């Protein structure tokens, strides 16, 4: 599994909820959550083989900035 951490411009709970259905419909995403208390408005995504660029493109189409910060591989 991969944990990918993104810096985003998603600033409110309402904006995060707006993105939930789009993220839920991506079959490669196993889990995701926003940490809006973090200064970088972090999005964490757990996936099997997802390219970070796909998440950034998805958020961009919805009017949000997104930048992959780190990616970790871990065993579950």
Q: End-to-end distance, in Å?
A: 7 Å
Proportion in β-strands: 35-45%
Number of domains: 1
Name the shape in a single word. globular
Largest sheet: 4 strands, antiparallel
Nearest-integer average pLDDT: 92
Strand order of the largest sheet: 2-3-1-4
Q: What is the helix tally?
A: 2
User: Order of SSEs, N→C?
Assistant: EHEEHE
What is the CATH architecture descriptor? 2-Layer Sandwich
Label the structural class: alpha+beta
- Share of helix among residues? 25-40%
Residue stretches low in confidence (pLDDT < 50, at least 5 long) are: none
Q: Round the Cα radius of gyration to an integer and report it.
A: 11 Å
Top CATH class: Alpha Beta
Number of strands: 4
CATH topology: Alpha-Beta Plaits
Structure report:
- This protein is an alpha+beta fold and 76 residues long.
- The chain has a single domain (2-73), classed as Alpha-Beta Plaits.
- Helices cover 29% and strands 37% of the residues.
- The protein has a 4-stranded antiparallel sheet with strand order 2-3-1-4, covered by helices on one side.
- The longest helix is centred in the N-terminal third of the chain and has 12 residues, at 13-24.
- The mean pLDDT is 92.
Question: Which structural traits does this protein have?
Answer:
76 residues; alpha+beta; Alpha-Beta Plaits
């Amino acid at each position: 599994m991969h944990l990918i951490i993104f810096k985003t411009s998603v600033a409110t709970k309402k904006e995060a909820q707006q993105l939930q259905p789009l993220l839920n419909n991506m079959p490669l995403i196993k889990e995701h959550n926003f940490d809006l208390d973090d200064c970088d408005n972090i999005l964490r995504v757990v996936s099997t083989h997802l390219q970070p660029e796909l998440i950034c493109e998805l958020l961009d189409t919805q009017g949000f900035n997104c930048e992959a910060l780190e990616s970790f591989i871990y065993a579950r």
